[in-house]
Amino acid sequence: MRKPFLLLISVSFAVLLLGGFYRAFFILFLKQELAWSQNLILVFGALSSFLFLPISLWIIKKLGTQETKKTIFQGGVIFGIFTILFGAAASFLNFLSVLVIDLGKSIGGFMVNSGRSGQVNKKLKNFPEEAGAIDTIFAPLGTALGSLISGFLIGFLGFNLMFILGGISIAAICQILKFRLR
C-alpha cells in the first residue's frame, strides 16, 4: 500500500516541478518569443481563468467516476503532451493556440493534483488536519522548487527545449510508473 501511494505522489510532484518551470518563464516566453504586448498577456490571463472555471467543474464531475490512480496517470500524460506541444510549436503559436494548449496543460495538472489530494486525504483519513497541511504545502513547494531548477536550466536549454524535455519527462514518468503499479 505504501509503494503505490509514494509512486502516485511522485507523479504529482513531477508535474508540480514542471509547473514551476512554466510559472517562472511563461510570461517572459509570451513577451519575448511571441512578442505579445502587456495588454494581450493580461487579456490572455483573464480569459484563460474565465474559461477554466466551467471546464474544471466538468472535470470534477467526470473524475468522480474514475479510479484515482488512472486519473493521476492520465492527467500527467495530458500535462506532458500539452507542454511538449507548447515547446515544439512555439514559432507557430497565436493567441487561440496558446489558449488551447494552456487550457489542456491546466486540465492535466488539475487531474493530477486532484488525484493527489484524494490520495493524501485517504491515506491520512484519521489525521485530517495533517492531511490538509501536507496537501496545502505540497503544491507551493513543488512549484517553487521547479522555478528554482528552471532558473538554472533556462540559460542552457532555452524556453522551447525546456518545455519539450519537461513534457517528455512527465509523460515518460507516468507511463513507467503506471506499468510498475500493475
Description of the molecule:
The structure is a single chain. The chain is mainly α and 182 residues long. It contains five helices and no strands. The chain has helices at 2-33, 38-63, 68-88, 95-123, 128-180. The longest helix has 53 residues, at 128-180.
How is this fold's topology laid out?
Elements: H1 2-33, H2 38-63, H3 68-88, H4 95-123, H5 128-180
Helix pairs in contact: 1-3, 1-4, 1-5, 2-4, 3-4, 3-5, 4-5
Describe the structure in brief.
The protein is mostly helical and 182 residues long.
User: Can you give the helix content as a percent range?
Assistant: over 70%
Q: Class by helix and strand content? A: mainly alpha
Write down the overall geometry: globular
Provide the gyration radius in Å: 16 Å
User: Which percent band covers the strand fraction?
Assistant: under 5%
* Low confidence ranges: none
Order of helices and strands: HHHHH
Q: How many E strands?
A: 0
First-last Cα distance: 13 Å
Chain-averaged pLDDT: 86
